[in-house]
Amino acid sequence: MMTLRQVEVIRAVMVTGTIGGAAKLLNVSAPGISRLVKYTERTLGIRFFQRQNGRYFPTPEAENIFEQINGVYKKVDDLSELISKIGRGGLSELRIGSVPSISQVMVPRAIERVRRRYPDLGIDINILKLEEAIDYLLLGRGECVAMSYRLEHSGLDFMPLASGELYCIVPPGHELAGRKQVSAAEITRYPLIGIDPNDPYGRIMAGIFARHRLDYNITIRARFGTTVCALVKAGLGIAIIDQFTVAHGGYPGIELLKITEPTRFETYIAVKRGAPLSLHVEYFIESLRAEMRAVEPSRSEGNAAPARARKK
Questions:
Q1: Which of 54, 75, 106, 149 is 20 to 30 Å from 196 at the Cα level?
Q2: Residue 291: what pLDDT?
Q3: How high is the pLDDT of residue 309?
């Protein structure tokens, strides 16, 4: 049997016609090439080359062998090309989901990182309502979903992403515009847009209002943060929004005010329990976490997130 190294050396001599040429092609010493050729001929009992005027020519009995060697080398080249394609993300697809609040700014920034590492990777992004995430994962439509809260479900695992805070957003020229922070009591003095007590973020503010016995007037309900921002920008009221929707100036034309009361919340990546994650989705999760933690409220140093937090 010939080893792949012997195949490589014999082919190099065949292609270049000299021991020195083969040595340069393979970036090794000429004596080493010569010794391996002689050893291969001796162990196999076949003479591969005739030497004429310092050049090596295939012997008639070795012609069929060289044909097979070229076939082997072609398959090695094909394998190398396949590995290269996989390394660039070719032949694969990243299928991920996200709730709207994280998809607006954070997901695109994470995808930009993924694209740099895997330039040929196919990418499919689904913007999901919270209640749609379960079927998306359990039916195998995607590998992960960025979530604004943690569900109680035996078929899902959750990995921490980042902490966030809520902000009050107002249009330019509003009475509150230009201020750095505002209290819950002050917020309730103005018409509110989009506060839904059943929404993960809405529950936070609803709880604050309830604890302080504050009445509030919701004039317009809107499900998604981008719509809420547009309504505020149009001067139709003020609103409470999560910081990830408006991070990095994601929605210009509105002003952000920090809320005096604590509004911290946690975000997660949800995955199907027991399902192996591809390298591509692992890198996406790593990138998304890095982007979100770069803008989250102050965080104690050294708190590394576990790889996967399993529900008991």
A1: 106
A2: 96
A3: 41
Sign of the torsion angle spanned by Cα atoms 274, 279, 280, 282: positive
Residue 284's closest CA among 122, 175, 176?
A: 122
Instruction: Round to whole Å and give the CA distance between 13 and 54.
Output: 12
Q: Let me know whether 256 and 136 are in one domain.
A: yes
Helix axes 19-26, 30-44, angle to 10 degrees: 110
State the residue range of the domain holding 158: 93-295
Which CATH number characterizes residue 63's domain?
1.10.10.10
Q: At 166, list the tokens.
A: 């809520």
Report yes or no on 128 lying in a domain.
yes
pTM of the model: 0.72
Contact at 8 Å (CB) between 287 and 113?
yes
Burial class of residue 251 (count of CB atoms within 10 Å of its CB; 0-12, 13-18, 19+): buried
Three-class secondary structure of residue 35 per DSSP = helix
Tell me how far apart the alpha carbons of residues 117 and 105 are, in angstroms, rounded to a whole number: 20
Beta strands in 201-264 (DSSP E): 218-220, 238-242, 255-259
298, exposed or middle or buried, with CB in 10 Å at 0-12, 13-18, 19+?
exposed
How far apart CA 224 and CA 170 sit, in angstroms, is 17
CATH number at residue 180: 3.40.190.290
Q: Report the first-to-last Cα separation within the chain, whole angstroms.
A: 55
- How many distinct helices (H) and strands (E) make up the chain? 11, 13
| Mean pLDDT, the chain, whole residue set | 87
For the stretch 94-134, pLDDT in tens is 999 999 999 999 999 999 999 999 998 899 999 998 789 99
Neighbours of 119 (CB within 10 A): 10
3-state secondary structure of 81: helix
Domain count, the chain: 2
Return the axis-axis angle of helices 4-16 and 30-44, rounded to nearest 10°.
Answer: 110
